[in-house]
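Hi there,

I know you've been waiting on this one. I reran it after we fixed the sequence typo, so this is the corrected version. Both the input and the resulting structure follow.
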Amino acid sequence: MLSNRSIDTAAQRRSATSPLHSPLVAGHLRRYAAARPTPMRPLLEAAVVVISVALSACASSPTGSCKNGEQSAIHDTLYFGTGRPNSVVTDEEWATFLETVVTPRFPQGLTVSQASGQWRGSDGSIVRERTYVLELVHPDDTANEKSVTEIAASYKAQFHQEAVLRTRASTCVSF
């Protein structure tokens, strides 16, 4: 362990050549070297990191920070792979799913795009497949949350899918 004196001397020698080794940094090093680790210190440090991350996530949420004329909403994006064990989801099957499962839950509007994607399956293999990307913008409420989870669950069951990827973000919208 370094003594306070050796930290001061080393910092003074380097302070002329590097701003990172200033007397201010030496003071921080001295306090750090003087701090004795305790059994609770790692737990305390982990708690500080978790709280910092949580607070930064809250700070970046646009809720309450939308501009005049905008309103807060959720932007959900769901990725529906089309590969199945022995076939693929056809355009007709997708159109029927969209008409019977998605549209009744979000009649106010939605966007669908086609994409090519890949992901690692549960067996470790890389799966490459055509994908439908569904984007939904809706109020942040229980009914809409339930509708989104029902859509994903229905697709997985109906088309024997391992997963439907969902990304969810807070946003501000205006019309």
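Quick highlight: The two ends are 63 Å apart (CA to CA).

Best,
R. S.
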